[in-house]
Predict the structure.
Amino acid sequence: KAGVTQTPRYLIKTRGQQVTLSCSPISGHRSVSWYQQTPGQGLQFLFEYFSETQRNKGNFPGRFSGRQFSNSRSEMNVSTLELGDSALYLCASSLLGGVGDEQYFGPGTRLTVT
Amino acid sequence: AQSVTQLDSQVPVFEEAPVELRCNYSSSVSVYLFWYVQYPNQGLQLLLKYLSGSTLVKGINGFEAEFNKSQTSFHLRKPSVHISDTAEYFCAVSDFQGAQKLVFGQGTRLTINP
């Protein structure tokens, strides 16, 4: 069974640009969550999608958005990039996103903003 | 709101020695507790989880953790470590309302010396 895949793995963008990251969950998984990992703030929850609906949201500005497609694939978008958005963005999928459902993490997309 | 404190940012130990990584949490509601491991340039992998029931939880790779409600702790232990255990370890918490919304600690870097 293939794991969670994220594309691209590495990305370099300039301040002010926007970026879209993609996540393909494990086959059959319907819940997809996104996390931001930085040396200073650690791992922080961005949002979770289930059946194309955002079910939970973390404390991030509106520049961070996401969506989920009918095949459960998810994308997250960051507009008007700032230097502080440089981070490893991790995607995780789980079967139904319920209590006890294990989250399987992808390898992440490393975004560098210059 | 929940929070997680990992009491040690770095823990060096010798191979085959026992290790304990400490984790304390704060929450006003019942929580679910997790330990994840992150190897260099990889995503996170679940080591073990506590949802309910027995307070001693056994996980993969010989790790175990004990949930202590009165001390709000969930320390991770391994009786004998190997070089391959060198990694960063994260304690995390979630609750019923946001089962997939993990709140992570800052991480503990475990270094195994030969």
